[in-house]
Design brief:
26% of the residues lie in helices and 21% in strands. The protein has helices at residues 11-22, 65-76, 82-91, 96-101, 126-141, 197-204, 228-235, 291-294, 298-303, 335-342, 346-359, 448-467, 479-482; strands at 2-7, 27-30, 47-49, 120-122, 144-146, 153-157, 160-166, 169-171, 174-176, 179-188, 218-219, 240-241, 247-253, 274-277, 310-314, 330-332, 360-361, 374-375, 394-406, 409-410, 417-420, 423-430. Strand 8 and strand 9 form a beta hairpin.
Amino acid sequence: MIDVLVIGGGNAALCAALMAREAGASVLLLEGAPRAWRGGNSQHTRNLRCMHEAPQDVLVDAYPEEEFWQDLLKVTGGQTDEHLARLVIRASSNCRDWMRSHGVHFQPPLSGALHVARTNAFFMGGGKALVNAYYRSAERLGVQIRYDAPVDDIELDGDRFVAAHISAREVDGKQYPAERIEARTCVLAAGGFESNREWLREAWGVNERGEWPADNFLIRGTRFNNGVLLRKLIDAGAETIGDPTQAHMVAIDARAPLYDGGICTRIDCVSLGVVVNCEGERFYDEGEDFWPKRYAIWGRLVAQQPRQVGFSIIDQKAIGRFMPPVFPGTTANSLEELASKLGLPVEAFVKTLQAYNSACVGDDFDHTRLDGCHTEGVTPAKTHWARPIDTPPFYGYPLKPGVTFTYLGLKTDDTAAVRFAGKPSANLFVAGEMMAGNVLGKGYTAGVGMSIGTAFGRIAGTQAAAAAGHRPHTASDGESRAIA
């Protein structure tokens, strides 16, 4: 019988598998996706948010624990477990050497307007390179890996894991029989339910306009996260945490593909202009804070607008100050022409832009800091980087909500154990997006999802190996002990 069964194939699952194997446990990892799509949402990531008290290798200046905590507290509005959040924050300071030992490389510090050279460590080659490095290391260490192996049921004896079930299936024209896989312990790291349209519809329901908002969502993340195991565990009585409508939801290009658009579908010029809905009206402060701290609120904001669409509007002055999107914007030499091309009500749109332009105050525009350029006399206000949109050509980018991962998950503690009726399971653990809601009740800040997955993946792997009778060989291997 295998010691540790890991269900999932992204960052958290791989961290768990590697830690369990390093502790001496036999490990089987089941990835539901084909090999070409392995890695879940982790393949679309770029960086890891890291606490550090002083400059460290690829990180400049300092990003101390309290600042990280305050950033998280602000974006979540206090909807976070402080003990688990601080555990993640501390773990983010000492994981990079371990990551490097498994083949992960980091870029030199970045500089510029995104303000992430201080807070985030970027993976050389992005998330796909990180995932590939972990898989190579897992194979080298003897972790058994199976692809096209979607687990659709979990067998429990009370609160104890017994076996995982895979239904009969066809892969590349070949039939595979149903399977029952036993293991001494199990780590669940199979992601949320963002690609389950019916569950999204159930969560979001019908709005006051008679629309089903979820029908207009794009899935920025992987198509394979359908929440089957999350639903099974909930039905089996596992304790849950989080709001099913809360998610890492980004306003992405409305022309993006339905699934797996990833980072490149983001529209990063929001803070440099204004955003209007399909009625030509602004609806939120575009300059509230630096973009890495606020980009992930815009998907939910757009989801609350009519038809779940928005439009990011800039002028020539903004060009060159943000990462160019994959799809070109709609251009025009007048605001009237731009509104017409975007299908917006011309009179309402022009009135909105004229009111905004007249309200702009300040002449010390600086997108690299919270500057003094703001609006007065319009609602909503724009707090920073407010400049009149008055220099043609004008640009418009259509927006839709892009769901990366959902926050409804399994409640856990600092051992990563799944909980039933207030009691932690002795051999069933959870990591990654299936428990991220313990730390992220709402909101997001760049790179924190990877921080959560790395911390709890390592804890879950260590704890699962210990429950199967294997202890880490060194203190550095025991992540849960090192950061407790």
